[in-house]
Each structure stands twice: as structure tokens, then as C-alpha cells.
Amino acid sequence: MIDGRFELLERLGGGGMGTVWRARDLVLRREVAIKEVRPPDPAYADVDPEGARMLRARVLREARALARIDHPHVVTVHHVVDSADEAYPWIVMELVAGGSLQERCDRGPMDPRAAARLGRQVLSALRAAHDAGVEHRDVKPANVLLRANGAPVLTDFGIAAVRESTNLTATGSVIGTPDYMAPERVSGKDSGPEADLWSLGMLLYVAVEGHHPLRRQNTLATLAAVLSEDVPPPRRAGPLAGALVSLLVRDPGARPDAATLDGMLASAADGNPTVPLVPRDALAPRPLPSPPPRTGPGGPPWPGPHTPLPVPSAPGNRRVRVLVGAGLVLGLAGTAVAGVLGWRSLTSDDGKADDAERPRTSVSSTVTGTNAGTGTDAGTGANAGTGTDDTPEAPSTPKKVNLLTADGIRTAIDKLEPVMGGTEVTGFVVYPDYVVAEALVKGSTNRYDRFSYRGGDVAIRDGAGGTVITGTVPVDLDTYDWDAVPALLRRADRDLGVAEPTHRYLVVDPPSTVFNTEAGLSIYLSDDYASSYLEADRQGKVTDVHARED
Q1: Most buried among 265, 285, 358, 503, by the most CB within 10 A?
Q2: Residue 433 is among the residues annotated as catalytic for this protein
Q3: Which domains does the chain have, with CATH numbers?
Q4: Do 309 and 228 touch, CB atoms closer than 8 A?
């Protein structure tokens, strides 16, 4: 019994930060939904009192955000229980008993015209929220409930941004569900209502196509795809296709505004094809300036809760793929939980770094044991420079160091080990030009810090990362046979069906007690249309191949 009035009857759903219940209001004698927000660790308030304060404030902000919106397609808040007897507030809302759009999507693709009608109704809810100064920031199928007549109701404003309100997120951090976040939010840039429209577009794409075009094997890979890959043209969207193509572009300024989008959805709902606002190629990413070189711990900061990562440039007319990371709060089952980082690098064939060559400040700063500029893995580890006076080299001479090799990975691990305090990680991603790692905070079983290595003599700690995904078990990098990497890259080139990959990287997959998986690694290749990957165990034996299906 909550507040002496609300009797909990049945658990409707939940995630890492709380539960939604079906309850009975004994005063008004009606059933309601009541949202309990509670962190998974009972000692959370003692360990992180500031985090607990922010969580409490976020719950109240959700209730106030909803209270500002009076719309038939936005869930109604009836009451907030906030008393000294409860550690966190409870939100009492109308009970929408028809299930969620996610459950509907799980049964198969929707008819494009029906999806367009539903999209208009969700859009009308978003327009009402935006007019009230509220950005939802977590539009996804699980947060769209369905009434008995099929009408959608937008819910879970728990991470909504309310204008003029106090910022309840760490500076520069980004919150949302990776699969449905707009690229500008993933990158940590300022965002507005256009980001909610991207999320609506992705929701509709999934509804009609029956799959998510950017979802990858893990969160890191999904975030990288959102940032750097074009959304494949829809195949089953029919009259809705033009609206989806117009929405799902990385430049928020190129997306249709809400009024234009409403007209496009109305046309699609009538069965009339919608025409993209601009040619798809016109919205291709343009080359960006090279990042400034690192100068050691005092150099440009790691991205995450604080800053977006600089974007590497590409020579010639090659397209640039954005590389960023951001601390996330992931929306799961109507709640928010701590998230992880997503990364992507620009590479060319055979694993060679494809960004502009970076000058080294001294010969001794080049990585020994790694072939420089060749993209090969000769096994002997020819040094890029000897560091002796009898082999002079101009400081401005550019050197390439390919870290996506056996020697390159070992060098990165050697440089990271002292700053991480060991070789056990909960996340490890290797690109040709740098490596990112996540390792548990000493004495903690679920909090990790972030680290990076970009070549040279310095690996750095980039700050607090977050909380690992439930069930993740740290894995020791020294238990991997890195000599198997070149063969795996060749196998990926041969079997994944990506003829001209624009991206290439390796992801270490820690074991999981939740998914009952063993430690391993994955090699990813991607182009303008999609990613493919192969999985291998720690000894380099291929266990599964997820090839391109044309």
C-alpha cells in the first residue's frame, strides 16, 4: 500500500532503475499505473548522495513535465507521492491497458499507412510537448502505449528536457536509448525538437521495416553506427518512404519541421507517396578538420560526459565518418540507467588508418613494436624509429601507426596497463589510429573508468565512465591470442560481403552472466549501407559470421 491509498496489484514492467505497477486507487476506486523509481543498489543514496538527489529531482521533473502537457496522446498524471516515508517519489498515472507499440512491433511489420496514421498522432503529442517547452528525448516503441482502440499514448518523460529548468544531467552528458537517439544527442551537442523527430522517424522505420537498421551486437557498436553510418533506404515503407528518408539524416537542420512532417505523414496515411525533401547524396557528411595532436595528459580531453571527441579528417574526397563518445543514461522499460560509450573510426582496406597522417613531436615518441604506415603485421615488429641520434628524422615527418594489428594491440595494452592498474577490462575497442578501454574502479564491482591510447608513450585516464551493464564480467586482455587478428581481418574481408568497407574495428566482448555468453571478440566492417561482423573466441577461432545479405 502506497500512501495509504494505492494498492499495488501487478508488475507491468521495469528495468535497472525502477518498476511500473498496476495499482488500485482506493479513494477513487479506479485502476491506475504507478511508477516506482528506485536504483538497483539499495545503498545508492549512501554511496552517491548527489546522484540520489538528482534522481529524485528527475522523478519530480517528469511529473511536472507531464503536468504541463494536456493532450489526448500524452499520458495523464493524476498524483505524485512524495513524503518522508518514501526514499523516492512515486508517480501515479492513467492506466493504458492496450500494451505498447514495442509489443505490436514484435508481432511483425505494420502497414505503412497505419504506421503513418500512428506517427501523426505521436507527432501531435510531441508538438504539444515542444510547445510547452518540453523535449521528450526518449521516443521509442516501448514508450508509446496503445489504448484499446489502438490510439497511441506517449509516456515516460523521465529524461525530458524542460526549458528554464535546472539541468539535472552532468555537464555535456547525453541521455536516451542508443537505438533511437539522434546523432547530435549521441555526440553531446546541443539538440532541440529536431532530435525528437529523428527518434520518431526511427520508430516508424522499425515499425514498417520490421528491424532496426543501426542496431548492432552491442551498445558500443550501435552508438558508432548512429554516429557514422547512413540509414539504409527503407524497402517496405511504401508511401511512407520519402518521409523516413527526409527525417533520418544526421544534419538536424535538413530534417522537415513538425508542420511539414505532419503533411507528409497525412499524405502517406492516404496512400500517396511522400517525396524526400532533398536528394540523399546532398546530405552526405562533409570532411571536417583534423583534431589537434595530443600533448599528453594535458591535451584535448576524452569525450564522454564532458566533451565530444574531435573528428578525424579524410584525404581526397573520401567521406568522413564521425567518431564520438558520450556518457549515456539509457531508458529501459520506462526507466533510466547508466550507459556506456560508443565509438567509430575512419579506416580503409586492410585495416590501414585512413585519416590524415599525424606528425610526431620526436622520434622517441613513436610506438615501438608496431609497423608504421604499412598496415601489416610482420611479426618482428619493425620500429617506426630507433630514437638514436644516428638516425635523424625531421620532427615534422608524418608517421602512421596502425594499432589494428597484433603488435599494435599489445603496445596499446602495455601503455594502458599502468594507468588502468591491470589488464582486466569491461570494454575494449581497437581502431587503426587509437584504442579505448573501460576498466572497473578499484574496489568496485560495477563502476568503470575510461582510458585511451593514441600512439606514442602516453596512455591516459579520461575520467569516470559509468556503471557496467548488469551481468558483465571483466575479461583479462592477456588471455587473448592477438596474433590471430590479421587472419581474422582477412577472413572478415573475404566472408562479410562488404566490398569497399569505410570502417574497420575490433571489439572485445566480455562474458555475461545475464546472456550466458563467453568472452570473445568481434571484427566489424561497414560501408554506407550497413555493418557486418564476425565473432571469434579468445584464441581467434571464428564462432559466427554475420555477413551482408543483399
Answers
A1: 265
A2: no
A3: 6-283 (1.10.510.10), 347-546 (no CATH)
A4: no
